[in-house]
Amino acid sequence: MPPIEFPYELVANTPFSDNFDQISGEFPDADVKIITSGGLRILAHRSILASSSPVLESILGRPRKHRSSEITIPILGVPCDAVALFVRFLYRPKCTEEEMDKYGIHLLALSHVFLIPHLKQRSTKVLIERLMIDNVVDMLQLARLCDTPDLYLKCMKMISSNFKAVEYTEGWKFLQDHDPWLELKILEYIDETELRKKKTRRNREEQSLYLQLSEAMECLEHICTEGCTSVGPYDMDRQKNKGLCSKFTTCQGLQILIRHFATCKRRANGGCSRCKRMWQLFRLHSSICDQPDLCRVPLCRQFKLKAQVKKGDDARWRLLVRKVVTAKAITSLSLPKRKREEEATDHLGVGSFGR
């Protein structure tokens, strides 16, 4: 099999051609021979190989028995065409999509062994784009061997999301028989992913609850200060037609609850769950309110005084108050600047709450 020697145009235009003679326009003859598994010989230039890879530079720098002896570098274990493409990349860092599709795996391995960062990055990107259920386990093993964290994480995520399908692939069956350590790592990652999802879902549900309570506090102040459709302060003009407010769904629920709280006969005995809920909302408002002397929400000042006598609330209640205040701050920040300024300058009036 005749040796491969790269054309003059490819060698002369490479940024590594330090020995290129600008006057004569000539480049020294190839002085390195690369041997592949299939017996293919690739002629290359020592200066270019050494400039491209610290590993090749170390190999080429080893002392030889005879200075005139030919330098031979074996690159075995990969297809001949992949080695030829790899060497050509050292001269000119370009590869077609078709070449990357066909030899991306081999180029990643070679770039890892010979420390070619830009080729490793390019190969990793191509392999990530072409990940499939059938090859994801093989790609995971390759990513671990070649120390490619981006590809490794992408493979782990795909396996975790499609584990039932991955279980039926030949790659997974081979992994179970020959690499139980990696199998354990995958199963641990899946368990951790599920735990994170549950925790995220739980936190989202809790945050939704705190946002609902924050909105309820705003609606309670709105009802007791300005009045809504059917409930408001005693001095409100009841004949005046009030339109639907921006949070009417929450306001409507609170108005129904307030009307029930005002007329319930079981409230005194503590046997009404709806009244208990309203009582908790009044208490929560009092814990948040910073103007109890001016506040028109019923029982606000009484709850403040009771908390002072008891020297504060219990830890769980304080945590709830802190969470609701945080949710209110987040909601406020999401409002337009003009709306925030209007709310900041709005002052509560003095009066008592009426049905």
UniProtKB/TrEMBL annotation:
Species of the source: Actinidia chinensis var. chinensis
Keyword Metal-binding listed: yes
An example molecular function term from Gene Ontology annotations: calmodulin binding
Residues in BTB domain copies: 30-99
UniProt GO BP: regulation of DNA-templated transcription; response to hormone; response to hydrogen peroxide; response to salicylic acid
PANTHER family cross-referenced by the UniProt entry: BTB/POZ AND TAZ DOMAIN-CONTAINING PROTEIN 3-RELATED, BTB_POZ AND TAZ DOMAIN-CONTAINING PROTEIN 2
Matches recorded under PROSITE patterns: BTB
Protein name: BTB/POZ and TAZ domain-containing protein
Transmembrane intervals: none
Swiss-Prot/TrEMBL keywords: Metal-binding, Ubl conjugation pathway, Zinc, Zinc-finger
Metabolic or biological pathway, per its Swiss-Prot or TrEMBL entry: Protein modification; protein ubiquitination
Gene3D superfamilies: 1.25.40.420, Potassium Channel Kv1.1, Chain A, TAZ domain
Domain of life of the source: Eukaryota
One of the record's GO cellular component terms: nucleus
